[in-house]
Amino acid sequence: MADLPEILNTFQPPAQIETEADKFVDPRTFCRLRFSPMLATGVILGLIREHFGNPTAIIDPLLQSCVWRSDDATGILIETCTNDALSRIQMRPAVLVRRNGITMVEEGLNNEIVSLGPDRGTSYVVTLHGSHTIFCISGKPGHAESLANETAMYLLQASPSIVGSLCFRGKFKLEDIGAIGMLEGGGGQYVVPVTFSYVTDFTWSIAPDAPVLRHINVQMLLYPDQSLK
Question: Any bridge partners for residue 199, and if so which?
Fold first, then answer.
């Protein structure tokens, strides 16, 4: 089985970042907010928690015991992908969410979309392309596969509800349900990675700090002494 070094070497983010992401429980609130990397993680984390937090929403019979709770009695660990989360898995099933890189694609000439006039400035836009990988972990290979499939299909069905929002304006697409592997150092746990990509735009405007000088007295610039007479 292939190992997954990207899980084992996961960077431990500052505590306040992880805490803020873990507060994102209601996905409907994200659609009114502007995109940020942490917000994107919160959207995905919140959607998965919402699904597994409702026992009647879980479809696969193998996953009926995987009911998420916000305390230590939870039947499934659903967290951001950190070394701390990996150490707390033990033999429980887990879903760990990790943000991958975000790249910028320039649009048009100097990213300009509209000139608002010399007094009002210019608006700009760039397109941001990113992805998240969701690691579905369990002590049994079939259980890990079922967990990955349930997670992927739920996010796929939920994608129309968040595409077009301020957070994800472009697309939210299932890219891959990866091959199963062993989690090295995880006590015999199996892991299936699920990757979603997304596209959104980022817009801003730059306005002049002072009104544009419309008229220049050339005589004053060329002959300053005479202009004072």
Answer: 129, 171
Q: Residue 76 CA to chain centroid, in angstroms?
A: 21
CA-CA distance, 128 to 198, in Å (whole number)? 8
Across 156-172, average pLDDT: 75
Sign of CA dihedral 162, 165, 168, 173: positive
Determine how β-strand 94-99 pairs with β-strand 77-80.
parallel
User: Helix-strand-coil percent breakdown of the chain, rounded to 5?
Assistant: 35, 30, 40
pLDDT tens digits, 79-130: 998 888 888 887 889 999 999 999 888 765 554 555 555 566 677 778 888 9
**CA dist., res. 15 & res. 95, Å (int):** 19
CA–CA distance, 46 with 25 (Å, rounded to integer): 4
Across 47-93, where does the E strand assignment appear?
A: 77-80
Domain 5-102+128-198 fold is STM4215-like (3.30.2000)
Cα(184)–Cα(135) distance, integer angstroms: 13
Domain boundaries, the chain: 5-102+128-198
Long-range contact pairs involving 179-183 (C-beta distance under 8 Å, separation at least 24)? 179/2, 180/1, 180/141, 180/144, 180/145, 181/1, 181/2, 181/3, 181/4, 182/1, 182/2, 182/3, 183/3, 183/4, 183/7, 183/137
Query: What is the pTM (predicted TM-score) of this model?
Result: 0.73
Residue 14 DSSP label: -
